[in-house]
Amino acid sequence: MKRRLTGQHGSNDFDRQSVLYLRGDVNYSRVHLQTGQILVSSRTLKWYADRWPDFVRVHKGALVNPAYAGQVKLTSSQRSLSY
Fold first, then answer.
1. DSSP secondary structure, the chain, as one string
2. In the structure, what pLDDT confidence band is assigned to residue 27 with cuts at 50, 70 and 90?
3. Domain 2-65's class?
4. Is the pLDDT of residue 72 over 50?
5. Ramachandran sector of residue 36 (left: φ over 0; alpha: ψ -120 to 50; beta: rest)
6. Which of 7, 34, 44, 63 is buried most deeply by CB count within 10 Å?
7. How far is 72 from 28, CA to CA, in rounded Å?
8. Overall average pLDDT of the 22-36 stretch
9. Is the dihedral of CA 19, 21, 26, 27 positive or negative?
């Protein structure tokens, strides 16, 4: 399903499956696509996390599409956090 991002410099359509990951930037999100393009959205990461439950919140500032994650490695110094 395509999603439209509308902003100051026009709008962009993208398929959510083409999203590699999202990075939080205060009250905005930077959407990183397979093509290398980075789109800025006025939505927060929480907004995306609530609507895209298949994406994984790996950090308070990052949401990852697990389809593109090759491996997840936890070290003993890391702890589990709930969001």
1. -EEEEEETTEEEEEEGGGEEEEEEETTEEEEEETTS-EEEESS-HHHHHHH-TTSEEEETTEEE-GGG-------TT------
2. very high
3. mainly beta
4. yes
5. left
6. 63
7. 26
8. 93
9. positive
pLDDT of 59 higher than 60: yes
What residue type is 39 in one-letter code? L
Residue positions counted in the chain: 83
Instruction: Name residue 35's amino acid.
Output: T
Task: Compute the distance between CA of residue 34 and CA of residue 24 in angstroms, rounded to an integer.
Answer: 18
Alpha-carbon 47 to chain mean position = 10
